[in-house]
Amino acid sequence: ATIHHHKFVIEETTVNRLCGTHNIITVNGQFPGPTLEVCNGDSLVVEVLNSGRYNATIHWHGIRQLRNPWADGPEYVTQCPIKPGETYTYRFTIEDQEGTLWWHAHSRWLRATVYGALVILPKPGTTYPFPKPKLEIPILLGEWWNRDPISVLQQALFTGAAPNVSDAYTINGEPGDLYSCSSQGTVKFLVESKETVLLRIINAALNQQLFFSLANHKLTVVAADALYTKPFATSVVLLGPGQTTDVLFTADQAPGRYYMAASAYATAQNAPFDNTTTTAILEYKSAVKGVSSRPVLPQLPRNNDTATATAFTTQFRSPSQVTVPTEIDESLFFTIGLGLVNCTPGPQCQGPNNTRFAASMNNVSFVLPRQTSLQQAYYQNIPGVYTTDFPVVPPVRFDYTGNVPRGLWQPSFGTKLHKMKFGSSVQIVLQDTAIVTTEDHPVHLHGYHFYVVGQGFGNFNPGSTASFNLVDPPQRNTIDVPVGGWAVIRFIADNPGVWFMHCHIDSHLAWGFAMAFIVENGYGEWESVQPPPADLPKC
Ligand code: C2O
What we know:
By secondary structure, the protein is mainly beta.
């Protein structure tokens, strides 16, 4: 196994986008940031120097970080932020994971521009469970704001209103030529006729589920969240923020130019919808030069096409039979969604009808500590930082996706965690609510991947258990819970430490849609959290 050393300098860079010049925070002046390529079993040593003006941390999204929460990255959860001028070195090993993951800042909205691909190739001497593609291309879908994304967030948090929507969606940092002033920068990929290409698609957008398609080419899904899947064909891929999907296609069409494109799959039914499409160009090397024909556009579903979204997401299966936990030790039921907090009319009360926006799980809106991180507080037994009374079921039962009584719209606030024994088998029902609006929430669990054993619309009820897939359910690290519906996940709590679980829509995260698990140590060194590194940042 190889040890890869990298240096990440978080710094400001000037870029031109959408007819303007902007100072953005980047890693090493690159936007998107560097692609890291490693093999399964390798180790990474990434020295992060923060030369920007905001606190920062880097999260290695989907890396399990076994017994090593210190390298996970979410600020105030597993570490204090790296302050401007300071350095922290992330050291971790890839243990039995292959495919496409990514890294991103995990500090307020910094990840809008601080993100990159993390490609994990098979162990040397082994190969993919599918024919080796000739070409591999990371496709990072993102969202662009003309304003500084951190100030967009700060304004929203100050006023209690919903943050401004982004000004463009992007592919590898570029909006593409359907946006004004963007044709120059449109990303172009060259392919040989007949070759097979692997697209490693990452949804790095802050707040938006995205449909993705490639004109005239059939796509075959082979992996998601760095876990292989039973291959299936599709013309459109749906990714929630945080998710990755690997697809193969063969360049078997007439030599020419084809758009790959992404557009929104609606979240809130009545949220402002930015009806735009980001594009990049796939060009056959043998395409006749000089013919500057407009590339062929793919057909993308409409932004409210839940039927297509569901038809896609329900096709995922593990490649073979898997061992799903069946005896459940921890049976948890979490309602998820938005909320509104009453406030006194004024500049800080700009939500609908004298309210501020909030979001919650089981009606607790999560508050990050500031004096230290949760992982440090747990490890060092620092009292008063968190409580361990996160409710394992909703405080009251109600018709979750029906007409929710107004009295239930207001969450409470707290830093509440749920503690579990090492090795527990866990089931979590994630139930969307119709508070404010029903939405599709991409819920991400750090330090783990989990089986998605069931999902559906409306209220989860015990009868839904009958439809669970306990044979070959897919594994993921981020589950898109259907709009106005539910999903059920299962996993074994075999990675000790404090692990964040949250909506990967960053506006929801900022409003408190999060909780954290403490997974206790088991017996001996191999079931216990390692000691913290000496350079762990201080708060
Ligand atoms: Cu990619 Cu806590 O997130």
